[in-house]
Amino acid sequence: MSTFIAVINFTDQGVRAVKESPARLAAAGKLAEALGVKVKEAFWTLGQYDMIVIAEGPDDAIAAWMYKVGSLGNIRSTTLRAFNAAEMQKIVGKMP
User: Fold this and answer.
1) Which of 5, 3, 1, 4 lies closest to 52, judged by CA?
2) What is the pLDDT of residues 27-72, one digit of tens each?
3) Is 51:58 a contact under the CB 8 Å cutoff?
4) What's the rounded Cα separation, in Å, for the pair 56 and 46?
5) How many domains in the chain?
6) pTM value?
7) By three-state DSSP, how is residue 94 classified?
8) How many whole angstroms separate alpha carbon 26 and alpha carbon 57?
9) Of 4, 5, 11, 19, which one has the greatest count of Cβ atoms within 10 A?
10) Which residues partner with 43 through β-bridges?
11) How many CB atoms lie within 10 A of CB 95?
12) By the 8 A CB rule, do 36 and 61 touch?
């Protein structure tokens, strides 16, 4: 399974309904499970981004999940593929 980090900003619609944000995350988590994605951590943040979500799953399942969640109109996200130390060691081990 791959690890992804999503940095999220609320849209105007999302911030107007910010009180619903915890419930939206719970619903997104249920959708994630149905797609074979595990939400490992989620944080609401102050500063440049409104939330950070760390999830694991197959690449196509993460993509489907993030597209669906984004299509609801409450967030915009940038999703990053993340590598732990063991994965990075394998990657650099393949370098000539």
Assistant:
1) 5
2) 999 999 999 999 999 999 999 999 999 999 999 999 999 999 999 9
3) no
4) 24
5) 1
6) 0.92
7) coil
8) 17
9) 4
10) 52
11) 5
12) yes
